Amino acid sequence: MPSCVLAYSGGLDTSVILGWLMDQGxxxxxxxxxxxxxxxxxxxxxxxxxxxxxxxxxxxxxQEELCRDFAFPVLSxxxxxxxxxxxxxxxxxxxxxxxxxxxxxxxxxxAYAHGATGKGNDQCRFQLAAEALDANxxxxxxxxxxxxxxxxxxxxxxxxxxxxxxxPVKATAAKPYSSDENCLxxxxxxxxxxxxxxxxxxxxxxxxxxxxxxxPDQKEVVSIGFESGVPxxxxxxxxxxxxxVEQLNQLAGRNGIGRIDMVENRFVGMKSRGVYxxxxxxxxxxxxxxxxxxxxxRDLMHLRDRLAPEVAEMVxxxxxxxxxxxxxxxxxxxxxxxxxxxxxxxxxxxNISISKRSSPNSLYDDAIATMEGGGDYxxxxxxxxxxxxxxxxxxxxxxxxxxx
Length: 404
Known about the structure:
Elements: E1 3-7, H1 12-23, E2 27-34, H2 42-52, E3 56-61, H3 63-76, H4 88-107, E4 111-113, H5 122-133, E5 138-140, H6 146-151, H7 155-165, E6 178-181, E7 186-189, H8 200-203, E8 220-227, E9 230-234, E10 237-238, H9 241-253, E11 259-265, E12 271-277, H10 279-295, H11 298-317, H12 323-335, E13 341-348, E14 351-358, H13 366-369, H14 381-389, H15 391-399
Helix pairs in contact: 1-7, 3-4, 4-5, 9-10, 11-12
């Protein structure tokens, strides 16, 4: 009997896929990769997998690894896909593949199965990560299988299958949107969100915080400390990566911070609409940038900023495990070595403002920057600087005069 590991969430799709794989003759090992999904009974999910008939069912807790080795390196790049999306789902997918392949090796499974559709980005992230880690891996994606799609053309057929097999699921035929969540963020798509004249932030029942209108009428203050670009403290307390994210999720969430509504370009070529909330990571991106403003050399920061969209695109597409990404992360570890300091932020009704900043590596010199008399900067030096900088323009103006 062939065997496979299934990235199992316990929801409608992966519950049906578990049963379908067994119908195809597979011995299935269900793996729930714990990314900090809220409001889920892990043991109940494992019991359901066993009741369906999984050969084994286990939980792999990777929450600290997700924050430490995946989210924080992307944060230190200030990487945002298309300038806005903080990549919360994208970051998690290569880690899911890594965790599942480890279990596959332990149980001797022949294949790796997932529940991503043939239209979305996740299929790319799962498969590209898996093949980079194991060149011989067999990836099973039922939604790309015509036999599976013919059997399950819609959600009604999925639910009917579960009823026939006595598989308990919470899904119903009516669902306004779908969501994916982890400790970093929650994404919402499909359903009513496919209608562009619908206000996404009114349709979605957000799970990580309140709306700016419902946030308190007084500001809340938080201090965040970094060492070499890595978040280490919140309000002076040393915390683990996961603790940093969890505490900031609470602080930012209750102040209405971290919601976006965007139409994005998927890797497969289509545009899609998504609503996201990432309260804690939104705070971290702002705080990290403020520390960089004090501590990073101008040319180094500008080079990093030119490369950051490339990094965001690679993460979004699924090219996490590749030489180019390895080299870029090595570069940024060097670039971040002096990004150490603390910032104090004021949070108020969805807004973030800076009130204090400090760093032992600060490149800000008030004796040079002062607008008052004296100081260490000789303004006369700017005369020669500008004569040299303007030389090419003066030569061109003489030879090739412009109309004005």
